[in-house]
Design goal:
It is a single chain. The protein has 19 helices and 16 strands. By secondary structure, it is of the alpha/beta class. 43% of the residues lie in helices and 17% in strands. It folds into three domains: 165 residues, Regulatory protein AraC (Jelly Rolls, Sandwich), CATH 2.60.120.280; 131 residues, Homeodomain-like (Arc Repressor Mutant, subunit A); 118 residues, Nitrogenase molybdenum iron protein domain (Rossmann fold), CATH 3.40.50. The protein is elongated, with a radius of gyration of 31 Å. Keywords: DNA-binding, Transcription, Transcription regulation. Pfam families: HTH_18. This is Iron complex transport system substrate-binding protein. GO terms for molecular function: DNA-binding transcription factor activity; sequence-specific DNA binding.
Amino acid sequence: MEWSETIRLWSQTPVKIVDIRHIVLKPWEEPRAYRLPANAFLFANQGEAWLKLDGIEVSSMGYHVLHGGKDAVLYMKGSNRSIDYYLILYKPIMELTGDNAAKRIEQLARFKRPYTFRASDPILLLSLLERMFVHWTKGEELERLQAAGLFYQFVYEQFRQLQLDGAELAEPDLAAQIALYIHEHYRESIPMETIANVFHYSTHYLARVFKRKYGSSPMEYLVQIRMNKAKALIMETDIPIRTIAESVGYTDIYYFNRLFKKQAGATPAQFKMHRLGLKGSIRTNIMPESFIASQAEESYIVNSDNHYQQNAWRVNEMNVRFKPSFAVSLLFSLSLLLAACGGTGAEVQPTAQTNNEQKNESANALPAEKRMFKDALGREVEIPANPGKVVVVTYGGYLLPLGLKPVGADQGTLDQYPEDMAEVESIGEGLGNAEAVSALEPDLIILPDYHKAEAFASYEKIAPTIAVAWGGDPDVINTLRTMVTL
């Protein structure tokens, strides 16, 4: 069947969406007849039903596309399984008066042309329909504009598959269909049960079929897709780490951090610093291969977890990563901060006026060994003027370029810097163990700001606890400045 004229007409005629519906017909539900108020596409997603549209009959087991014109009657009869389908109602915008009225009426008839076919790539069509339906039902003009864009993608894709319908088609590759579905929905929560419902097979069978082709389970594949997307965003943008995590499907920043470190051999913040190093310095031979290796077309999973740990980049390699000008600027900034914090710097001789002012203000001042610090959560925290025993969670590596070491750090940090932190005590995995921290008798505790309030409350019983911004800076200067200030 020749479709070139119809496709040309679609490309030249504006179309308005009337409605987008997602309908479920229950098992053995009474037959229904529905006269279409506008031209329509119907996509039978799953289940069983007998369908008749404008004289075309289909016993659908799912993945059928039907098209009919305005005033055509759709008959539908369910079976012992429910039928899930999408219905898109649309109308072409065409002026039917004037000299070319007869020609336009003939063209309008082409939009009513009835046809049906079984989709060769149903998941791609389903993905477009799902997104289209979500945007349409929100009702806002901007969302409906997005739905209109997706509608034209759907029209293109169904014409492409329609033209293939008469050819000898191989049975759709189930594993490839699952991979495509994951690529389309990786930002969402898609457990195996969801994938099983989409493809109408058991989770065990789908996992076996998928692993035979890709060497990993669908869930492992999903994690790797998300991590690859996250790496690209970290390498190419200055988007905060927390926002990147949410954009690839993770609302728990700590869980995202753990997964990322397992896959990349470095935390997102360290990976981000590595990117800055490459921008301003010559690439060295100690660069991790996992950061630059091209991905095979269908090879996403590396089975050995240890592979990611062999060449992990570390914070204290900054001196070989950055330009000399960057290092000079950094050292200059830090020296100023050290001077401001009471470190090295010129000593100012007190005058009589300053002595009197100090005496007058002494009643309201903090003790000399204390000072106030505003942390990343906006809290004013009283901390030691010169802390000597600091416990750091996650950010221990930031102290190394400054020539400093904590008394305690989480095990993940110690594993990252086994030589530099050989004498540092472990407080345990992740957030650490409160008893282990208490045993070190710290005078200051530093945590990333993404932890819950309960974690800060627990550690504040041991020592003053400061929140440091997590991944929000486009470079490492501000984080290092915070460490120096503390």
